[in-house]
Amino acid sequence: MVTKILFFKNTLGVLLTVLLSIQLAWAQADPQLQNHEELRGRAIQFLTTLPGVTHESKIKVTLPDSQLSLVNCESLEFFLPTGSSQHGNMRLGARCTAPQAWSLYLIASILQPVTHFITLRAMEKGQAVNLNDVTANSVYEQHPPNGLINDPQELAGRTLIRPLPAGASLRSNDLHTEPTLTRGQTVKIIATGKGFGITYEGKSLANAMAGEAVQVRTQSNHIISGIARTGGIVEIVGN
Questions:
Q1: Where in the chain does DSSP place strands (E)?
Q2: Quick one: which of 27, 37, 71, 172 has the most CB atoms within 10 Å?
Q3: What pTM did the predictor assign?
């Protein structure tokens, strides 16, 4: 007898679920009710117009209740609450003004791809990192780690300050940067200007990274300023 009762309860539960699904499908097919997929589609279209959103952005919109029944809207507008963020997770307002007024908040998110340089193999402390050691992956995440290396130029001349396993995302605090020029180093000074270009030698008076200003002492004991370049070069550009 108990088995029959349990069978009846389980069967009744299945029937109720099926009936509810059919009722929801009928409601969505009813032309007098707002179609959920159309509402989501129009919401996504609105979000694509926000500043900073590109074809690479990942947009997601969901309704607060999948069984929501709304009168089909002929005049629909979307809005962001005051002070709302325009990236990551957010609430998106939908407002209907005709033929029947209604409003609700949709759950939305906009994520931008973040480039991670991932190590292809385990690497040792002090090892120089180059493009053969890493692969670039685009990851969609709301809160990317701080200090990610996302430009291959940032790897030039840098070594690991700690060992890293394969599959690790490189961050700036994983890398030690060697200066492009070191104090006392003999450098080649290249001075260019309108209609002239000369090259001579000098000594760097400080450590400097590529692109930084540095002072050098010439062989004639003059101190001049230029821009540090790779290859032991200091560039001076005149008028």
A1: 58-62, 75-79, 88-98, 102-111, 113-119, 134-140, 158-160, 175-177, 186-193, 196-204, 213-218, 223-229, 233-237
A2: 27
A3: 0.56
The C-alpha atoms of residue 74 and residue 71 are separated, in whole angstroms, by 9
Q: pLDDT tens across 114-159, in order?
A: 999 999 999 999 898 888 999 999 999 888 888 898 788 778 778 8
Residue ranges of the domains in the chain?
A: 1-30, 33-111, 119-177, 186-237
What angle is formed at CA 101 by the lines to CA 100 and CA 103, rounded to 5 degrees?
135
Which residue type is seen at 227? I
Q: CB of 150 within 8 A of CB of 170?
A: no
Q: For residues 73 and 132, what is the distance between their CA atoms, to the nearest angstrom? A: 56
Give residue 136's pLDDT: 92
The fold for domain 186-237 equals SH3 type barrels. (2.30.30)
How big is the chain by its Cα radius of gyration, in Å?
Answer: 31
As a dihedral over the C-alpha atoms of residue 130, residue 134, residue 135, residue 140, rounded to 10 degrees, the angle is -110
